[in-house]
């Protein structure tokens, strides 16, 4: 991939607010999934998947989930299960790399990858073999 790749599509720039409004419409029985998808310019599968996640959370905690409105549910990326570092650890790693750069001790991409790998090993994390 090119180092300075410029993304040309806005397909993934869907605001979470728009998704929540659509989910509330479907949940309140105002519209069908298909009509809501057309109204909010979303895909039917996205709305269906989010409703399924909401309903599975509701089945786990029926008493707690009924009191919490739909807007308070947060949805994560599908890659978060394979994530090695937490957000704090990742930010700390990024600030260390930036500090090295500011001290005129620039690191190559391979050195940064080796640094991140050794940091993950030091934290006793599971790291892929490649």
From TrEMBL:
Domain of life assignment: Eukaryota
Protein name, per record: HTH psq-type domain-containing protein
Organism placement in taxonomy: Eukaryota, Metazoa, Ecdysozoa, Arthropoda, Hexapoda
